[in-house]
Automatic annotation (TrEMBL):
Keywords attached to this entry: Iron, Iron-sulfur, Metal-binding, Pyridoxal phosphate, Transferase
Family as reported in the entry's similarity comment: Belongs to the class-V pyridoxal-phosphate-dependent aminotransferase family. NifS/IscS subfamily.
Presence of keyword Metal-binding: yes
Domain of life of the source: Bacteria
Keyword DNA-binding attributed: no
PROSITE patterns: AA_TRANSFER_CLASS_5
EC number: 2.8.1.7
UniProt name for this protein: Cysteine desulfurase
Matches recorded under Gene3D superfamilies: Aspartate Aminotransferase, domain 1, Type I PLP-dependent aspartate aminotransferase-like (Major domain)
Required cofactor(s): pyridoxal 5'-phosphate
Cited function: Catalyzes the removal of elemental sulfur atoms from cysteine to produce alanine. Seems to participate in the biosynthesis of the nitrogenase metalloclusters by providing the inorganic sulfur required for the Fe-S core formation.
Catalytic reaction(s) noted: (sulfur carrier)-H + L-cysteine = (sulfur carrier)-SH + L-alanine
Amino acid sequence: MSVPPANRPIYLDNHATTPVDPRVLAAMRPWWEENFANPASVEHALGRAAAEAVEDARAAVAALIGASPREIVLTSGATESNNIAIKGAARFAASQGSGRRRIVTVATEHKCVLESVRDLAAEGFEPVILPVGADGLLDPAVLAAAVDDRTLLVSVMAVNNEIGVVQDLAALSAVAKAAGAIFHTDAAQAAGRVVLDVERDNIDLLSLSAHKIYGPKGIGALYVRRRPRVRLQPLFSGGGQERGLRSGTLAAPLVVGFGEAARIARREGPLDTARIAEQRDRLLGRLRAAVPGLRVNGDPARRVAGNLNLTFPGDTDAQAIIAAAPELCVSTGSACSSAEVEPSYVLRAIGLEERDARATLRLGIGRFTSPAEVDQAAAVLARAWKATLSRETSEQGAA
């Protein structure tokens, strides 16, 4: 593992993105510099070599989730995969005259899922947004009450991108399948962090993103079940690549990097999880000792190893804490919603009041986080919290 320069901020935002593993970068490099051929140019040797490399990577991605390579459609990332899954399933069903018009999802989903479901309302579909418990989990009984023979698709995120909780995919997919619905999961935050198996959990559609598993940005995948076959309508037209579901020239270096990241995740996932969980517990222990009243959001047990979603006590604000801790890279929530002025909708969905939601930070520990960085981060956060408390108190006194 490489050691970051002394002046580089400590990176604790591994839910937003992960650094590219040096082994992934090494695997990608030849496909930028030596063989830059289009993998669709199979008439010549360089094109065939690129095509073979793409298929090897596709097989590695498939193996990470227990799928067949023929079920993997390569995309630009999980946002595109989610859009293809949800809109593609709905529009194909409508084109076949299906009477199923209900699309069910969860209030804590990623914005791209929520917006995809809401967009379909303009096309005559019925969006249903279900609540979660205070632990962030969807109760299968709540889902069962919402699905019936009008339900076309259920979409539930495998691991939440803010509070890190792990949904019971097998139980939820069983409910969806009992109603005859398609089951989709956004697994961008789950891959490499929990064991995914599309057969075990009876998943029809599953979205992935390479940059969440120490791979490159700009590449992802959509798993599409072949037996029984799930039919989708593509979002746009083109040359018919990726079984006609996602036309466009494949970026071979990115695909190769995705494949290498998937191989590493599959091979080293248990070791990564154990190491990361140890660093998380170390960080939480030090923070709790320095910040009395610190609260962890989300189910304490059913969560990925590297996630800490923390509400700081007292009259403080997460943005102020971040500003007082320039040595750290941390966030208040989803990177895709970071421009929002309002507090996290995920935190509001699990019952946090606005004040508490505004005093909450998301910490994401990763493969390359060291014990020394954890100790320094705990000290910096505690100091920043105390500084913001003092500032808030003095400002209130002056007013």
